[in-house]
Amino acid sequence: MKAEIIAVGTELLLGQIVNTNAQYIAQECAHMGLSVHFQTVVGDNPERIRSAVEIARGRADVVIFTGGLGPTQDDLTKDVLAQMYGRKMLIHEPSMDAIRSLFSNRGAHMVESNIRQANWIEGSDPLKNETGLAVGNALTIEGIHYILLPGPPKEMKPMFKNEVLPWLHGVMKVPVPLHSKMLKFAGIGESNLEHAILDLIDGQTDPTLAPYAKEGEVTVRVTTRALSIQEAELKMMPVTEEIYRRLGAHLYAERDIPIEAVIIEDLAKSKRTLAVAESCTGGGIGDKLTMVPGSGDAYLGGIVCYSNDLKHKLLGVPMDILEGENAPGAVSSEAAISMAEGMLSTAESDYALSVTGVAGPGSSEGKPAGLVYIGLAVRGRETVVRELQLSGNRESVKLRAAKSAFYMLWRSLQEESMK
Amino acid sequence: MKAEIIAVGTELLLGQIVNTNAQYIAQECAHMGLSVHFQTVVGDNPERIRSAVEIARGRADVVIFTGGLGPTQDDLTKDVLAQMYGRKMLIHEPSMDAIRSLFSNRGAHMVESNIRQANWIEGSDPLKNETGLAVGNALTIEGIHYILLPGPPKEMKPMFKNEVLPWLHGVMKVPVPLHSKMLKFAGIGESNLEHAILDLIDGQTDPTLAPYAKEGEVTVRVTTRALSIQEAELKMMPVTEEIYRRLGAHLYAERDIPIEAVIIEDLAKSKRTLAVAESCTGGGIGDKLTMVPGSGDAYLGGIVCYSNDLKHKLLGVPMDILEGENAPGAVSSEAAISMAEGMLSTAESDYALSVTGVAGPGSSEGKPAGLVYIGLAVRGRETVVRELQLSGNRESVKLRAAKSAFYMLWRSLQEESMK
Predict the structure, then answer these.
(1) Is there a contact between B381 and B392 (Cβ–Cβ < 8 Å)?
(2) Would you call B25 and A15 a contact, using CB atoms and an 8 Å cutoff?
(3) Prior bond to B361 cis, omega within 30?
(4) Domain A178-253 maps to which CATH number in 3.30.70.100, 1.10.443.10, 3.30.70.20, 3.30.70.2860?
(5) Cα-Cα end-to-end distance for chain A
(6) Which residues form the signal peptide (chains A, B) (predicted)?
(7) Do B286 and A283 touch (CB under 8 A)?
(8) B39 touches chain A (CB under 8 A)
């Protein structure tokens, strides 16, 4: 069955609010195996709402409205639908009683327009509103299932969960829901990843594979139809294993979490600690690590050594690495190694990362924007360093440098755990 | 003129991401006087993208796409439009060169599919992508203006501002252009700000005032129609002055920059320096400061002392403040003061900020999530400290703590400059 979500509200068209309702309803539909093919946003205008309904009923089996059930003259969803199909508008008495008693409890004066919130299209099923006043409606006309929900998320969400889900399960003829799993990758770009599994993507029927990229990470969503989570896992296993065989060095999680959360988990589990010396990332690595709840169990802190003076004073980087005619400079593998080792001994941690580079715009020390060195010092092992040439603006370079540092540490933790 | 926004991407239909692009584009359209009547979301499916275009061209003069310009087989927006109108697909050579040089700089292998990002519909105007690879397109066919933008917000937004706005101004027949100015506020919430200038907002005709909030900052956009920037400035001056009279202690800029950029500018101008000791913000303050190009002129760096051990060792915070039955603890005004003073003397900076608090979720040291202390040490002055009770999740608390620290420092710089 195909679904369409229609959000009604001029405030959405003006960009005053973001359409989080569409996301919530889309997630719920995906989860129950209802394919959303379109989402539409339309303003509080009767002709345009009508035209949106005409288009939707031509291409969807289920049309889910959110918004336009309130008390004002602008709230038109029920009226438009009733008029289109020549249905009477009735008053839903239990909802009317609830509205009346709310106003009398508050000692407030009920204005005429509040009655509109108890409106009920003839022949529809009322959907109870536990957190607000406007009653929802669900009805099937000419084979199309219409669901009318209020706009405020705090009213819409409970109504969806408690009233719409059972109603939809009753009318749907597809008993096999969708299940999906997120595979998360680091240290590889979207196009290289796609290239490596193109035959799997192209040959897909069930499960299906969909790669996408955001914020320096690449995700592949594996989706299948199955009656239980166990069955879904079994169906997804062969393709997941094949992807792991090809890209295991980049696949850091099989759920939607950032790589820094995996690192914190790994470290905390084995009671190991991390400290970070940051130059060009300026604190971004620590910021990301400390977004993870409980990060204090593994992350001790670090030093943001933006100036050469602090690199020398707090991390003991020798001045003859940092400055002078023949010095390698602050952006060099020598500096990255010295920073990581200085951090390890200052913090007395098990691991220390260091990042130094040119965030841009423009070059520095005669080195190009995007040139970054990452050092990794590990207690009892030789310090390693990696040189990267990253692209993008200042924000991107900083983000990619941080994600590359996480990838380097994650690989090192992986390799150790395999020994 | 009527506009429609079409966001292309199966991840939107599955509810994996929220359609913030539609909100951004809708705001920009509203601002330039372009009425958005519909927003549509469609998946990565050629027939359905085609049908969305057919509907849109029947009801809009301007159709703005976002998404589907990437390198993968799923990215279809340009292909569908070119096929519908029988146009050839060309390679935009400057974009191709940029893609090639990016891969060669990175030493990475360019796969065939990356070429798709340089695709360019015959007869269209290329829209430069300054923060990514996919070139945008703008073209007018049969009286309909089509604009094709990438999906990632960090590519879409600069392309809209720098490329689409002038292109649209060229095709729109608005005789008197809009001019606007952003007034940026810190240390005040949106509702308090609105309350303070409600009479000005309600009484507005030209200029108009529109307040909105994002990421811990509040903005008021002042907009007027004028033939020149000089005329616009003159028209905006009385209301801007009245706002300054009422809210000068919060109004930190008359252009759209974050408060940390103003701080870096102020400090660099007078050759003063800043260091930051961060506990609960975990590096977020340094991260934000170093997003400002040239921040190295004023920001020396800092210490992320997530553990008590590092607070003591690197900043000299006495252990009897941090631990023990009757100790004030790491989240206390005593700790914040000691951290700020330790940072000032360690970095030998002119200013030092410190932040310590409970980011949550859940309490720590028996103190509630959101309790934050900010210290400010200034060379030759008594250290000051502020206690805040912030609301929201871990991410919000960290962000608000950072913005509150910036506000505290900005006020201090303001007061000094008035002496």
Answers:
(1) no
(2) yes
(3) yes
(4) 3.30.70.2860
(5) 50
(6) none
(7) yes
(8) yes
